[in-house]
Write a structure and sequence with these properties.
This protein has 189 residues and is α+β, with helices and mostly antiparallel strands. It has helices at residues 3-17, 23-30, 34-50, 73-76, 90-102, 107-114, 119-127, 150-155, 169-187; strands spanning 21-22, 55-60, 63-68, 131-136, 144-148. It is built from 9 helices and 5 strands; from the N terminus they run αβααββααααββαα. α5 packs across α7. The termini are far apart.
Length: 189
Amino acid sequence: MDRSKAEAVLEAVLFTMGDSVEIGKLADVIEEDVKTTREILQDMARRYEEEDRGISLTQFDNAVQLCTKAEMYEYLIKVAKTPRKMVLTDTVLETLAIVAYKQPVTRIEIERVRGVSCDHAINKLLEYDLITELGRLDAPGRPLLFGTTEQFLRCFGVKSLEDLPELNPVQMEEFKKQAEEEVQQQLGV
């Protein structure tokens, strides 16, 4: 398949799927190796940027997705229904941070770090598709394991978990101390 046809096929598949597609699967579709497929995708992404188009090609770990550029959002809402806004309270954000940095993690482990129940926060994060169930821990009771999703990466503008900021140990101790003080206040001690 010539390069022009391969690009057209990749664009059609990505447009139709709507979600991200693994680069290996795209390579199979155009009957090329992964390295060549990555090169074609990089050329496509560069042209989308240079030609001032309304879409961009976004890469997540080993997958890519056609996305609407952020600056086009105001025009989209004139046609589409306004999407439901996610409300990430401090509690939900704290829980998400724990999952992001400690995954795979159980509800009990999250509660041990936070010092309080996190059922509501976990349910919200599942509802917003920011975390997902990864399976079960091989331990008594077989608790669920949670981890972040591709939607998490999209929402926070990172391409992979390695791009998350490093945690400062001094800050972590301060956060831990604040959390312990909050728990003590709640218990009235």
